[in-house]
Amino acid sequence: MSKIISGFSKLSKEEKIDWLAENYFNSQPEIIQTIKQYWNVDEKLQQLHDDFIENTISNFYMPYGIAPNFVINGREYVVPMVVEESSVVAAASKVAKYWSTRGGFKTKVISTTKIGQVHFIYAGDKSDLEKYFQANKTELYAATASITKNMEKRGGGILDIELADKTDKLSDYYQLHVTFETKDSMGANFINSCLEAIAKRFQNEEIEVIMSILSNYVPECIVQAEVSCPIEDLGGENPEKFAYKFEQAVKIAEIEPYRAVTHNKGIMNGIDAVVLATGNDFRAIESGAHAYAARNGEYSSLTYCEVKDGIFRFWIEIPLALGTVGGLTALHPMAKLSLDMMQKPSARTLMQIIAAAGLAQNFAALRALTTKGIQHGHMKMHLMNILNQHNATATEKDQVVAYFENRTVSHSAVVEKLNALRKPSIQWVDFSNEDEVRTQLQKLNSDSNPSFGNMNAQQMIEHLSAVTQIPNGNWKVDIFVEDEKAARRKPFLNTDNEIQVGFKASFLSENPVPLKFNSIDEAIDDLISQVKLFFEVFEKDTSRKVTHPFFGELDFEYWKKFQVKHFTHHFKQFGLV
């Protein structure tokens, strides 16, 4: 009888376990008991863990230990480590204490740039491709505006987009080589979302996009950690001999790949343990570190040693793309505890702590080897993590999952959709409906008080009229909007978001302007006439584009979207909607 099953993911957890026990364990009750005894008694916490991956049936526990006595750049740390291998935590703790009396670890971040690439095939003339790229480079940034807006608020985003010619290695093969700064986020989902948006905008009939993906090789996201002291301070029976043997052991790992692999594995014992404890991706760290170790054409040591002028110096230089916000770091209770334990480090500080842990582990291994010898592991699941982080209900999860079935998932987009589901439906004002606009505005009088802002009712009406004069061509606002700013701001007009209370455009005066008309009725008449003129000028010239002082150049459709938001904003100001 075949054990192939369809629809397994749709079974409940109990049904999955029953199927597994029946088909692969002869329905042994002790098997089911073992699986269930690792469930968390807190049902809510267990559900959180169930949603981390697909087809969850239980938890697989790993030891969580701590290594105290780390002194890094003069600050004391206790470092959490998740690892199954014995002696790793003990070795890190022992070395941390050893160096705490010898100046501690000195660390620095050299760079935090991350890489992503759009890989594509193009068989045409290279100069045509270069012209096409340069002509559309600004559009490539614009294509990611909705994805990058939150990252840019934190000082990150896309640093550069370059066209790379790889045809010498593979026929017709080119890349868009994109560099990113993701601040305290590891940024994998952010980078991949940006790349897919860039690829979609860049491809044409002659360009065949093969794939768009971040690179876990981050040779420009580098951290350095070192320890040093006078040779005599190393201690032991013969510190000079120890220093010499230690230096030679490192040099052997620099030139002998067979030794270098095991040497670096020892480094990663310490690094992976802290990476796991903080909810970061140890597989990405591993692959990036090993690629960096082979960057010069032969696999080599990640650590270095120098004994010179009576000083022993030992250091590591390693790429570490880490995050302290988002993903599992923000969701897993133990990951959050780990970060709290390390005094809530930024991503840069975490890079330095983890580099120090790797260096400590390597020092412990080499000291043992040279003295007494030595003996001796998204886009839909990421979506669910975000929803759990924001306490989404079952109904909200179903709606958001369905919404993103064919859309790019980003943290900001998911939160935006979730917020839209949670807030009351917006009653948008149809500014083109003269009867509706006039009826609502005629409810106002000189005693009408705004819920926000300083304008009175008539000033608000005259303000709507004045802004409408901009697309009509009757008010020339002399403000230049940079393309990059316009590209970031314009997508807002395509959303269901409202203009925020308190928003103040730079082209407007700080205080309400003097009234132009003698009464509210006259102001309403003027506004109605300006709205009519608005439609007339665009009907006469369907290609007409007029620069908005905040959003940049807008066509008729975008001006209408702005007008709806603007009218709704001010109608709400006076309780008309």
UniProtKB/TrEMBL annotation:
The keyword NAD applies. SUPFAM superfamilies: DinB/YfiT-like putative metalloenzymes, NAD-binding domain of HMG-CoA reductase, Substrate-binding domain of HMG-CoA reductase. This is 3-hydroxy-3-methylglutaryl coenzyme A reductase. InterPro entries: DinB/YfiT-like, DUF1569, HMG_CoA_Rdtase, HMG_CoA_Rdtase_bac-typ, HMG_CoA_Rdtase_cat_sf, HMG_CoA_Rdtase_CS, HMG_CoA_Rdtase_NAD(P)-bd_sf, HMG_CoA_Rdtase_sub-bd_dom_sf. CDD domains: HMG-CoA_reductase_classII. Pfam families: DUF1569, HMG-CoA_red. Gene3D superfamilies: 1.10.8.660, 3-hydroxy-3-methylglutaryl-coenzyme A Reductase, Chain A, domain 2, dinb family like domain. Pathway: Metabolic intermediate metabolism; (R)-mevalonate degradation; (S)-3-hydroxy-3-methylglutaryl-CoA from (R)-mevalonate: step 1/1. It catalyses: (R)-mevalonate + 2 NAD(+) + CoA = (3S)-3-hydroxy-3-methylglutaryl-CoA + 2 NADH + 2 H(+). PROSITE patterns: HMG_COA_REDUCTASE_1, HMG_COA_REDUCTASE_4.
